[in-house]
Each structure stands twice: as structure tokens, then as C-alpha cells.
Amino acid sequence: MSLFITLEGGEGSGKSTVLRNIVSALEKEGYAVITTREPGGTPISEEIRNVILDKKNTDMDPRTEALLYAASRRQHLVQKVWPALKEGKIVLCDRYLDSSLAYQGGARNLGIDEVLSINMFATEGTFPDITLLFDLDPEVGLSRIAANAGREVNRLDLEKIEFHKQVRATFLSLAKRYSDRFVVLDASKNVEDVTADALAAIKARLEK
Ligand code: TYD
Q1: What is the pLDDT of residues 35-91, one digit of tens each?
Q2: Strand 3-9 versus strand 130-135 pairing type
Q3: Counting atoms of ligand 1 from 1, which one is nearest the CA of 69?
Q4: Are 86 and 29 within 8 A, CB to CB?
Q5: How far does residue 30's CA lie from ligand 1's centre (Å)?
Q6: Runs of H (alpha helix) within 77-154
Q7: Ligand 1: does its nearest atom lie under 6 Å from the Cβ of 99?
Q8: Rounded to whole angstroms, how far apart are CA atoms 34 and 79?
Q9: What is the biggest distance separating any 2 CA atoms in the chain, rounded to whole angstroms?
Q10: Interacting residues of 146 by C-beta distance below 8 A, sequence separation 6+
């Protein structure tokens, strides 16, 4: 049975680590799984990723940014996600359209429905079956990252916190709007517990 699962959340939420754990647990049980990420996941999408995330592109217009994420998403769907789903695989994707709704729609203030409309064009209405939201206070997420890098949180980091608070609030509002597919995980728990919660949600869906 094919299943399209996306992982969403702010920085430092631990979703990449949990993703690796979920994959090995599902593979052990014999499921065919592929993992991928956004923006990126195919050569063309990775090229678009480089343009979006390049630090020297500081003058990028927010709508340009939203369109590039949507373009990258489209190419990734066509070349990777749709074919894998057709083959009956479980596709685990690190970020998808809800990131655009939260970051560009919410935090960059473009409007959720505006950003949704370009994404409907890009995806032809392909929504995930399950969206795992790794919910975490951004202060905790950013301090986890800072601790890893061995440096203190500075003024810029603090400015960014407002942006990340908006990202979190928008994700939580999306979880209410799309309550049929969203599963909100408490990412302040330890990795083992968050992995168990994520797996329980996926199993419930697989056994439906
Ligand atoms: P990445 O290094 O992959 O971040 P992470 O490990 O947190 O997933 O960078 C992706 C960045 O792009 C991340 O800050 C979230 C942002 N993003 C958007 O703003 N909109 C989108 O549609 C997507 C997919 C990502």
C-alpha cells in the first residue's frame, strides 16, 4: 500500500533524526520505503534549492521565493514522489507544501491561501496522507542548534525567533485546518519517545 508521509516543523525539532529511526523500523518490518527532502530530492530541484538557500541572494523577493519552492516541489513530485507512490512505496518526505504555507504564507506574510493557490497549480492537489508535525518552542529549537554549534544565541538569532514563532503558530493552525492528515508530535520529548509516537501514528494508518 502506498503512503505519502511528510515531516514538518521548525529548526532544531529533531525531525531528521526521527526520520532515520522511522525508516529503519519500517524497513525491518518489510515495508518498501523511500526518503527524500524538500527543497531538493532531484537534480533540477537541488539546483533550485541552491538558488533559494544561497546566502548571497539576500534581495530575493518573497513571492519569488514562494514560486521557487513550488517549482522545486513540482519537479520533485514528477520525478520522484509520484513514481514511487505508483510502485506502492511509502514515501517519507522531509518538508513539503505545509512548509511553504507556514514559512512563506505565515512568517513572510504572503497569506496562506495565496501560497496555497500556487501550490495547487504545482502539485495538482497532491496532499500527503499523513503530516507529522514536530512541534517545539522555537527558543528550544534554536538553542539546540546553538548548543550544537558551540556558540551563544546572538541578536540576529533573537530577531529570527519572532519569525520562527510565526512559523510555529501557522503550523499549528494548519494542523487544525487539516486535522484529518495532521498528527502533532511533542518534539520536546526525547528522540526515542518522539520516534515511538510517530511510528504509532503511521501504523494506525497502515492498519486502517
Ligand atoms: P534545510 O536545511 O533543509 O532545513 P531543515 O533541516 O530545517 O529542514 O533548509 C530548508 C529551509 O527552507 C528551512 O529553513 C525551511 C525552508 N522552507 C521554506 O521556507 N519553504 C518551503 O516550502 C520549504 C520546503 C522549506
Answers
A1: 999 988 899 999 999 999 888 888 899 999 999 999 999 999 999 999 999 999 999
A2: parallel
A3: 22
A4: no
A5: 30
A6: 82-86, 97-99, 112-123, 138-149
A7: yes
A8: 13
A9: 48
A10: 152, 153, 157
To 10 degrees, what angle do helices 112-123 and 155-177 make? 70
69 lines ligand 1 (CB under 6 A): yes
* Ligand 1 atom closest to residue 11's alpha carbon, by position in its atom list: 7
Ligand 1 mean position to 208 CA, how many Å? 31
Nearest residue by C-alpha to atom 14 in ligand 1: 11
Residue type, 201: A
**Residue 119 half-sphere exposure toward CB, CA atoms < 13 A:** 21
Distance 138 CA to ligand 1 centre (A): 15
Residue nearest to atom 20 of ligand 1 (CA): 100
- The answer to whether 56 and 91 have CB atoms below 8 angstroms apart is no
Does the Cβ of 103 fall within 6 Å of ligand 1? yes
What the block records as the C-alpha cell of 197 is 509516537
**Count of positions (residues) in the chain:** 208
CB atoms within 10 A of CB 158: 11
Distance 38 CA to ligand 1 centre (A): 7
pTM of the predicted protein model: 0.94
